[in-house]
Every structure is written in structure tokens, then in C-alpha cells.
Write a structure and sequence with these properties.
Radius of gyration: 23 Å
Protein name: MBOAT family protein
Largest sheet: none
Helix content: over 70%
Organism: Paenibacillus oceani
Number of helices: 18
Family: Belongs to the membrane-bound acyltransferase family.
Number of domains: 2
Membrane topology: Multi-pass membrane protein
Structural class: mainly alpha
Pfam family, one: MBOAT
Strand content: under 5%
Distance between the termini: 16 Å
């Protein structure tokens, strides 16, 4: 069920009415609402999700007993196996077939009929984080299986994040009865929901057909066209994914709940470390806390640190999809992060740390790193690793930056980057802008403008509705 559909808004309105009308019944009501939301994906998917939720919950209860370590690893292995089976089985078998030159799957094989359950990558990581945190006594097990179900399946963040931790979200679930209506929360909710809808239906969905047309003809693209395709996809996936996250924030605020921020204008990053602090923040933190640090982090010397960093980023790439392009994408960022660490060490030894304070240096670093990010997006989006590498090779030729005949698209890209900068200032000065808005614009004027924005978005919602890109991950 897509957020920007009448069916979803109907579910949300009914849920909100019941939520505030019957405070004592909030856990049962959200339990049912989450089931209704997810059952649209299929009864089989719902049964699997319910089974994994119950399994994880009862294993977490055993993490306080004598066999806690056994139940920790048993529950993690089952969760990972569930993800591997549905997401990677066919990919692994096809890779073996290609490597050995044999045929293992027939056209009627049931493995080819496996459908990836929506949201499985997100709820699996959330369950693993919960199990580890309970085991390490960072958080107590949920009060009941229903509390745990609402924590895992809250429909605002279920399908594409953010990935919530027990310490962040479980206290809010436990205190649902105490939540009271707040005009401030509803204003924040309306702001984030409207921003997300605007990004999705006005920006991301507008870019989608253009991006598809470029990447459907990847083999025939010139280097300049490759850059245009990469630029457009960079903004398409950002607007699409951040739209979902911001809609999720807005919906949660309506219920008096607060989700983690997942994006902070990532294309203003100056290096890979900063990028991953701004892009898909909850996944980046998950990878750091549950992969990188357990591997040893930076505790055992530089070589081990670089190795751990490379492994962690490669796993991040694999998490995104069952394809060698995603593996290469993760490895690319692993290598990039390692090179950046070496560069920072060299810069410090040469006494060039003062460059970081230079506005000109920062501007150049942003532009350069944005283009490096776009190269990575080609790996992410292209159909096949060989196709991606061939296009990147053309993009790195001197004539690739001759954009004759493509100035319209180049102008669109520049406009999108300006919007990105405006979004940065909007978030940075949100509180001050809110005060200014209410002080200088009377309520009737604000009401008219709110109505105009709502009408504008509704008009766009009547068009073709594309699913969110990250639904498939």
C-alpha cells in the first residue's frame, strides 16, 4: 500500500480517529492497522512476517536465561537465513550456473517463483538490532508480543525504514496510552508529509521516465549522456527515498511518535564519511554498530581498520540487492572510504589541515565528491556489471563533459541541486522560519496557502503513481 494513495489515507484517518478516541486500545488498534497495511502485499507475506516476529520475540525473552548466547545466535541465524532464502537464493544459484557452466534451475523451478516480501530487508535488520541490544542489556525485552509487533511493524516505517532501535522506539510504544493530541506535532506531521509527497509525486516521479529512458539504452549512451543519466538518477533516488522517510516522519508525528531522521541533504557532502552520515543514516549506523565495530572497528591497527571498513561497506552493498552491481557498489564505497582515510592521514602529515576551513576547498570538495557519487550510482542502476563499467569508462573520457544538445537536462540538474541547497537551509532554519511564518502571516492567509498546497498535491496524486524505489530492497 503506497503512502500517496487514497487507500492509505483512508487507513491513516481511521487509525488516527480510533487512536485518539480510545487511548486504552491503542496497542490492539495499531496491531490490526499494521496487519491491514501489510496484508495488501499478500497473505503469504503477512504470515511469514507474523511468524518471524513471534519467533524473534520469544527468542528475545530467552536472552535473559542460562542459554542466552545460544538463543542469540540461533535467532540471528534464522533471521538471516530467512532474508537470504527470499532475497539471494536465485542470485546465488545463477552465479554458480554461470561460474560452472551448468544449468541448475529449470523454467518451472519453484525457486524462480519466489517473490521478495516487501520490507524484509528492513524488518530483518531491525529484529537483529533488537536481539543484540537485549542480549547486551541495552534494553529490556518488550512487554508483550503485541508491543513487539507494533514496534517492528508500525506501518509508517515498515516498508523502507528508517530502521529503528529498541532504545529509540520501544519506550514510545510502551507509553502509547499517555500520548495526547499536540498541535505542534500535527503541524510537524503536515510539514513532513507534504514535503514527502511533493518530493515523490512532483520531483521523483517526474524524473522516473527520463531516467528509465537513458538506462534502457545504456550501451548506446555517450559519455555526456552517461553523466546526465547519472545526475538524474542521483536526484530521482534521493527524492524518492527521502520522500518515503519524510512521509514516515510526518505520519508518526500525527500519532505523537518520533522516528529517526534518515537523510540530511547528502549531496552537500565533501567526502564518503560525511556522505554516509547524511544518506540512509539509520542503515549507516546499523552497519557501523552491528558489522564494523564487532569486526574490530579501528581498534587493531590501520590495516585491520581498512579491512573492516571494506567488509562493512561491501555488506551494505549486498543488503541493497541480489546483483553483482550492488556488490560492486558496496566495494566501491569501501575502497573510497579507505582512500579517504589515507588522504586524511597524508593531509595531516603534510600540515594541510587548514584546507578544511577554506570555503573554496569545501565547494570544490562538494562538486568533486558529487561526481564520484554519480559514478557509484551508475553501478547501482545499470543492468549488469559489464554494462555499468563500460558506461563509466565512456564517462571518464575528456569529451564526456561536452554537453552540446543536452543543455535542457543540464539546466534541470542545476535546478535540482539548487533545490537541494534550499532544502538544507529549510531544515537548518526550520524553527526560525516557523516563527517568522506565524508572526508575519495571519491565520486566514496561512489557511489559504495550506489549501492551495493541498490542492496542488492532490492534483498531482491523480496521475500515475510509481512505487518507491526502495520497496524492492
Amino acid at each position: 500500500m503506497l503512502f500517496h494513495t487514497p487507500e492509505f489515507f483512508s487507513l491513516m484517518i481511521v487509525s488516527l480517529v480510533l487512536f485518539y478516541a480510545f487511548p486504552r486500545w491503542r496497542i490492539p488498534m495499531l496491531t490490526v492497522a499494521n496487519i491491514v497495511f501489510y496484508i495488501v502485499a499478500g497473505v503469504g507475506n503477512l504470515i511469514l512476517f507474523l511468524a518471524m516476529t513471534a519467533f524473534t520475540y520469544y527468542c528475545s525473552k530467552a536472552l535473559r536465561g542460562s542459554y542466552s548466547r545460544f538463543f542469540l545466535w540461533f535467532s540471528i541465524i534464522v533471521n538471516v537465513a530467512n532474508l537470504l532464502f527470499f532475497k539471494y537464493t536465485t542470485f546465488l544459484i545463477r552465479s554458480v550456473e554461470k561460474g560452472l557452466g551448468v544449468s541448475l534451475l529449470t523454467e518451472n523451478s519453484f525457486l524462480l517463483k519466489i517473490v521478495l516480501p516487501i520490507g524484509i530487508s528492513f524488518y530483518t535488520f531491525q529484529m537483529i538490532a533488537y536481539l543484540v541490544d537485549v542480549y547486551k542489556k541495552r534494553w529490556e525485552p518488550a512487554q508483550s508480543v503485541f508491543h513487539f509487533w507494533v514496534f517492528i511493524s508500525f506501518y509508517a516505517h515498515l516498508v523502507a525504514g528508517p530502521i529503528m532501535r529498541g532504545s529509540e522506539f520501544m519506550p514510545q510504544i510502551d507509553n502509547l496510552r499517555k500520548i495526547r493530541f499536540s498541535a505542534d506535532n500535527w503541524r510537524l506531521g503536515a510539514f513532513f508529509l507534504s514535503l514527502g509527497i511533493f518530493k515523490k509525486v512532483v520531483l521523483a516521479d517526474y524524473l522516473t521516465p527520463h531516467v528509465d529512458s537513458f538506462f534502457q539504452n545504456t550501451a548506446n549512451l555517450t559519455g555526456a549522456e552517461g553523466w546526465i543519466a547519472a545526475y538524474l538518477f542521483a536526484f530521482q533516488i534521493f527524492f524518492d527515498f527521502s520522500a518515503y522517510s519524510e512521509m514516515a516522519l510526518g505520519i508518526a508525528y500525527f500519532f505523537g511518535l518520533e522516528l529517526a531522521v534518515n537523510f540530511r541533504t547528502p549531496y552537500l557532502s565533501k567526502n564518503p564519511t560525511e556522505f554516509w552520515r547524511r544518506w540512509h543514516i539509520t542503515l549507516s549506523n546499523w552497519i557501523k554498530d552491528y558489522i564494523y565495530i564487532p569486526l574490530g572497528g579501528s581498534r587493531n591497527g590501520e590495516i585491520r581498520q581498512f579491512t573492516n571498513l571494506f567488509i562493512a561497506m561491501t555488506i551494505s552493498g549486498i543488503w541493497h540487492g541480489a546483483s553483482w552491481t550492488f556488490v560492486a557498489w558496496g566495494m566501491f564505497y569501501g575502497a573510497l572510504a579507505t582512500v579517504h582515510k589515507l588522504y586524511m592521514m597524508l593531509k595531516e602529515k603534510l600540515g594541510l589541515g587548514f584546507l578544511d576551513k577554506s570555503r573554496i576547498y569545501q565547494f570544490i570538495a562538494i562538486i568533486v565528491f558529487f561526481h564520484i557519487t554519480c559514478i557509484a550510482w551508475v553501478l547501482f542502476r545499470a543492468e549488469g556489471l559489464r554494462t555499468a563499467l563500460s558506461l563509466i569508462k565512456r564517462m571518464l573520457t575528456p569529451q564526456a563533459f561536452n554537453f552540446d544538445g543536452h543543455y535542457l537536462f543540464l539546466g534541470i540538474v542545476i535546478g535540482l541541486f539548487v533545490l537541494h541547497i534550499l532544502e538544507y537551509f529549510l531544515h537548518k532554519h526550520r524553527t526560525g522560519l516557523g516563527v517568522w511564518w506565524h508572526n508575519y502571516f495571519p491565520a486566514p492567509v496561512r489557511a489559504i496557502l495550506y489549501t492551495a498546497v493541498a490542492a496542488f498535491l492532490i492534483l498531482f496524486l491523480k496521475g500515475e503513481q510509481n512505487t518507491f524505489i526502495y520497496f524492492q530492497f
